[in-house]
Amino acid sequence: MNIGVFDSGLGGLTIFKALLQQLPQYNYVYLGDNARVPYGNRSAETIYQFTKQALEFLFKHDCLLIIIACNTSTATTLRRIQTELLPQHHPDKHVLGIIKPVVETVAASTARRVGVIATRATVESGSFIRELKKENPAVAVFQNAGPLLVPFIEEGELKGPVLQTVLKRYIDPLLRHGIDHLILGCTHYGLIKPAVQQAIGNKVKVMTEEEVVAQKLRSYLKKHPEVETKLGKTTQRRFFITDYSPRYQNLVRLFLGNHFQDHHRLELVKLT
């Protein structure tokens, strides 16, 4: 059986690459719903329906465990997925998010004043505030939505003066709160971490989720041998997308490097 990785588009490839680097022995299926990206400006119910469609697709492709590599989907749907969809329809399956791993890491650090940049839907869900307070009530948390960042990243605009102007618009209000850590609460944002660090300065530690998700998954599998022993270990990879262009294939190859090889191909699907 496979490990599934789902994202609304390109950003989840940062999580996927970390998994392939640290846990290469397993079989993986990646699904990017790039036809409907970004999710962050949509309603919670629409995000849930999109996420449910993606999960059902991955379940049909023999995924026993799925990582929702999308903060928007994790923030707005994970609780409902775990309490409604799985118990009622897929009691033998497992779905994990990506907010808790980075929250646990930050809460256990020296962080005292934490900033979060994320999509509008993630910010409005309050997930980062709720989870950080649960882990460490003494931490002060400040959020700001960055709705322009995903379109920039999807267009390959990963650096430059225009991006710096946009970043400062989102970062400066957080700096006024005296933050010492900044969580990039969207997997897309990991691709612009150097630009974010340039905009925010060296006194604030910038955290991305790919840095910790793979480590947390390894720990999870050690604690759950009933899941780990069922996973295939023949290093098979499949890549599904909901919209295709040569640009997307080039970006996948760019971000995954030698993890996307000549015998791999992007398979076009329609989610319903």
Q: What are the SSEs and their pairings?
A:
Elements: E1 2-7, H1 12-22, E2 28-32, H2 44-60, E3 63-68, H3 71-89, E4 94-96, H4 99-107, E5 113-118, H5 120-125, H6 127-135, E6 140-145, H7 149-154, H8 161-175, E7 181-184, H9 193-200, E8 205-207, H10 210-223, H11 225-228, E9 237-241, H12 246-256, E10 266-268
Parallel strand pairs: 1-2, 1-3, 2-9, 3-4, 5-6, 5-7, 7-8, 9-10
For this entry, give a set of tags.
2 domains, four-stranded parallel β-sheet, Rossmann fold, 272 residues, alpha/beta
Could you give a quick summary of the protein structure above?
The chain is an alpha/beta fold and 272 residues long. The protein is built from twelve helices and ten strands.
Structure annotation, total helices: 12
* Coarse structural class: alpha/beta
Whole-number radius of gyration?
A: 18 Å
CATH overall fold name of the largest domain: Rossmann fold
By CATH reckoning, the class of the largest domain would read Alpha Beta
**Series of secondary-structure elements, N-terminal to C-terminal:** EHEHEHEHEHHEHHEHEHHEHE
Percent range for helical residues? Answer: 40-55%
Lateral strand order in the biggest sheet? 4-3-1-2-9-10
Average pLDDT confidence is 92
What's the structural domain tally?
A: 2
Main beta sheet:
6 strands, parallel
